[in-house]
Amino acid sequence: MRKIWFIGAVLCALAGCGGASPPSVPPQSVAILSVTAETLTEELVWSGNIVPAETAKLSFKISGVIADVSVRAGDAVQSGQVLARLNPDDCETQVRAAEAQWRAATLQAENILPAGLAQAKAQLDLTLANYARALELYEAGAISAVSLEEIAAKKTADEAVHTQALEALDIGRAEAERARAAYDFALSSLAATEIKSPWDGVVLQVIAAAGESTNAGYPVLVLGQTAEMWVEIGLTDEESVRLTPGLAAEVYVYGPEDTRAGVLEEIGALADSLTRNFTGRVRLPGTDGRLRAGMIARVSIALPGYEGILAPVSSVLHLADGEAVYIYDAAAGTALRRPVETGETRGDRVEILSGLAPGDSLIVEGQFKLRDGEKVTPR
């Protein structure tokens, strides 16, 4: 009986028999952070390949047998340097033949035909003078009509000879011009037996070798211009729209292990059919010869800054219905849950795209045990 009374007394004490109220629980202590806007920048990074500013496939303008290729892949060349030659024998023969024809045509047009014209002109002038005197004599009755007709026939014949001499001179001059054109063409064909470098650069590839026959326009060498080098990067659809030519770029080249300043010069208008990326080209001006085509580089571009809000990553709650934070309502002394949309994570902070405004008091410690509207005490 005494044991039952003792148990009942204990239960009564635990239940607060006698009308005593339970002790009050103090509001939870939380740490708050005043939300401020700051200028945010975004850096985009790609891996790219070093390429020459310009690349050209060089070929002969005429067909023939290659006599010599004087460079190898990787050789540095200068503007105007002879890189390859065709066998010139046929072209040299054509030049000699064309020169002989041009000289003969020039002699004809400048000496022989003008002399013939001068002779025909002198004869015509004499005949015209004789015809004028004969006409006077005929009118005076001193000669017969037959004599006048003979002189008139001579005048007609001499006029025809003079006209033919004029036409022959025109034809001769045209023939001389055609012969000169043929000679110039032969000279240009002889010059075309050489491939010369159009700029200072480097030989990227040698396609043909001495002894091979080649057709006009068929590539023999691939040459790259190295006065400036480029870095080619692949841009996604979004990046190709966000970026604009003229943006400064930082380029780290793994080969020489150095960092260079560049400029985004071009953004391709057509996506690659395989990668679906757009080609961006970053120019590296004033290269020092240490860069080679095919080297790998890392390209980073900082986009223009904008106003945004960053919050500690730990302050964001990941709930079943989305992300949220707690802010402190100073007037009510309570914690209010507010849904947010987050963006890029930057170290230990994350960008808040919506849900927070400058001046809000963000709860950054103690938020994991809170309920919406619960009383809290800021530290």
Characterization of this structure:
With 379 residues, the protein is an alpha+beta fold. Helix 2 (89-139) runs antiparallel to helix 3. Helices cover 31% and strands 39% of the residues. The protein has a six-stranded antiparallel beta barrel. The protein folds into two domains: 25-53 and 226-379, Elongation Factor Tu (Ef-tu), domain 3; 88-192. The protein contains four helices and 20 strands.
Give a quick rundown of the structure.
With 379 residues, the protein is α+β, with helices and mostly antiparallel strands. The chain is built from four helices and 20 strands.
CATH superfamily of the largest domain, called what? Efflux pump adaptor protein, beta barrel domain
Report the principal-axis shape.
elongated
Count of DSSP H/I helices: 4
> Approximately how much helix is present in the residues?
25-40%
